Amino acid sequence: MPQETAGRTPVRGPVLALLVGLVLTLLTHVVLCALATGAVWDVAARWGHPELTWWALAATGALCAGCVALLARSGRLTAPAPARQPVAAAS
C-alpha cells in the first residue's frame, strides 16, 4: 500500500492521465473533422459542385483504409507474441 504524506492526495497513476489524453485526443479529432467537413461543404456550395464534399469524404476514407492496410501488412496491428518460458530439463 503506498504511503501518504500529510496534506497530499495520493497519486492516481498513469491510467488516469492516459484516459484524459485519450478523451481529449478523440474530442479534438471530432471537432477538427467537423470543421474540415463544413469548410469543404461551403467551398463546394460556392463553386456549385455539391458532389465535391462526398468525393472529399470518400478520398479521406480511402486514405484511412490504405493506412490501416499498411499497418496490418507491417505487423503493427497484431498482438506481440508471448515470451517463451524455458522448459525445465527432465531428470
Number of helices: 2
Segments where pLDDT lies below 50 for 5+ residues?
none
Strand content: under 5%
What integer is the average pLDDT?
83
What is the strand and helix layout of this fold?
Layout: H1 14-47, H2 51-74
Structural notes for this entry:
It is a single chain. By secondary structure, the chain is an all-alpha fold. It has a domain at 15-74. Helices cover 64% and strands 0% of the residues. Helix 1 (14-47) packs antiparallel against helix 2.
Short description:
The chain is mostly helical and 91 residues long. The protein is 64% helix and 0% strand.
Task: List the defining traits of the structure above.
0% strand; mainly alpha; 91 residues
